[in-house]
Amino acid sequence: MNYQDISYEVIGAVARICHNRPAQANAESENLLAELDHALEVARQDDAVRVVIIGGRGKHFSAGHDLMDGMEKRGDFSPEQHWLWESEHYLGNALRIWDFPKPTIAQVQGACIAGGFMVANMCDMVVAADDAFFSDPVAHSLAAASVEALMHPWVMGIRKSKEFLFTGQRLSAVDAKELGMVNHVVARAELEQFTLDLANRIALAPPIGIRMLKRSINRSADIMGFRNSLMAHFDTHILSTSTREHLDLAAAGMRASMEAAKKAQS
User: What is the C-alpha separation between 121 and 106, in angstroms, rounded?
Assistant: First the structure.
């Protein structure tokens, strides 16, 4: 596949899809997420692929959604246009990972922030390097009600998710494992091989049985309210990104980013 912003490789029964914008800390542009969607569909249709790993090339898993890309392409969108676009894309991207019929493993190193946090935590399992950290600072930085898919209470519990989001703090890989959000923490040098070994172990199981098992576990979460919770939050998120508070903070942040870019070029 001739992808621009991701890489796609098949290793035996495992497909590995990686964010591939290391110079931008793997910030998720509209094109990157479209390519991720496409690659997942390729892996879904390939009967030889039994497990999918989602990772990131370079130092970081992902610094989150590419805000400059979003401002350039959708900066003049009305709230209803944002609602329609993000329903299909940001929220849609996340739910398509959650609903992917084959097992998925997030392979996380370095920064896993906001939109990156969302992608990783919609996977079935998370393996983190010992240098990984997790963050969703958008309440502080953008006056937004977290990211589009609020899976945080489901992966770290109510009280910790409140602290995590209210403070914008970083969560280390070790702390994330203690909360049950991360399955394994390994040395950075061992991350790729450990994750591949785990994927290969899962790939030994009968594929239809694993699909049925994943469906049952996901349905258990949905019966407990997972999907309804995400959908209820999404509308709150869109409203929060239409407030004057958000617009003022976003404009100030954009100006600061542009000034930093000018200084870097001079």
Answer: 8
Structure tokens at 173: 């890989």
pLDDT at residue 60 tops 80? yes
- Res 231 pLDDT > 60: yes
User: Residues of the chain with pLDDT > 70: what percent?
Assistant: 95
Is 196 in contact with 186 (CB distance < 8 Å)?
no
Q: Does residue 61 sit in helix, strand or coil?
A: coil
Strands 51-56 and 104-108: parallel
Give 111-130 pLDDT, tens digit per residue.
999 999 999 999 999 999 99
Q: How far apart are CA 82 and CA 73, in angstroms?
A: 11
Given a contact cutoff of 8 angstroms between Cβ atoms, the answer to whether 57 and 22 are in contact is yes
Residues 6+ apart with CB under 8 A from 140: 167, 168
C-alpha distances in Å from residue 227, one per residue of 3, 87, 169, 218, 234: 31, 13, 26, 10, 11
Long-range contacts, stretch 213-217, CB < 8 angstroms, 24+ apart: 214/101, 214/102, 214/103, 214/124, 215/101
Nearest-angstrom CA–CA distance, 65 and 86 = 12
